[in-house]
Design brief:
single chain, alpha/beta, five-stranded parallel beta sheet, 5 strands, globular
Length: 221
């Protein structure tokens, strides 16, 4: 059972998400929060698998709440998915840099929301690939010039290749087709790369790909 916490200052948004998620046999909404402070308290109390976190909330915004969650060693198993009103929200890239595992626009299709919650728990795919690529391109273009990371020396040539493909937003299936390997092999390469670099999840691996200079803005395939 996937346990979800909803954090949004709009009660109608929370009610809509709850109705959809609670109708699934493998998902349970264990709590709700109307601001960032309440979200932090509920996360520490309930230890959900996933937090659907609105970026803009009173008292403590979603970005600050996400940073506190991901920096808490006792909450390493909690995945945060940011909720945005617009596809190109100015805080989304910073949210992923802060440890969020992905993001969704609030008007996403129900099936996409369900797929996203399950995917982020599995650590198997970055959310909303099409939107992901546009956002990464937009904000990576604004970021400072990346410096080569010594950590990349730990990777094999194939792992660097896989990391670059993750960085441009490809799923495991797309990576498998690009490299002519099985999806399981692609997933194994991604997992090993994350372990070697100490990446919390796939979203952080994307950020590291840009920050290390392995991938540059405009390389979307």
């Amino acid at each position: 059972m996937i346990r979800v916490l909803l954090a949004d200052d709009q009660s109608l948004v929370r009610a809509g998400f709850r109705a959809l998620l609670d109708a699934q046999p493998d998902i349970e909404v264990v709590g709700e929060a109307a601001d960032g402070d309440e979200a932090l308290r509920k996360v520490r109390e309930l230890r959900p698998d996933v937090v659907l976190m609105d970026i803009r909330m009173p008292l403590l915004d979603g970005l600050a709440a996400t940073r506190r969650i991901t920096e808490d060693e006792a909450l390493t198993e909690v995945k945060v998915v940011m909720l945005t009103t617009f596809e190109l929200d100015e805080y989304v890239f910073e949210a992923i840099r802060s440890g969020a595992s992905g993001f969704l626009v609030k008007d996403t299709e129900p099936d996409e929301l369900l797929r996203a919650v399950r995917a982020v728990v599995a650590g198997d795919a970055l959310l909303s690939p099409g939107v992901t690529r546009r956002l990464i391109a937009e904000f990576a273009a604004r970021s400072k010039e990346p410096a080569a990371a010594a950590e990349l020396a730990r990777l094999t040539e194939r792992e660097r290749e896989v990391m670059a493909l993750v960085g441009i937003g490809l799923s495991n299936e797309e990576i498998a087709r690009r490299l002519v390997v099985s999806p399981l092999t692609a997933k194994t390469h991604v997992s090993r790369t994350m372990v070697k670099l100490g990446a919390r999840d796939r979203a952080q691996l994307v950020v590291l790909a840009y920050e290390s200079g392995l991938v540059r803005p405009g390389w979307l395939g």
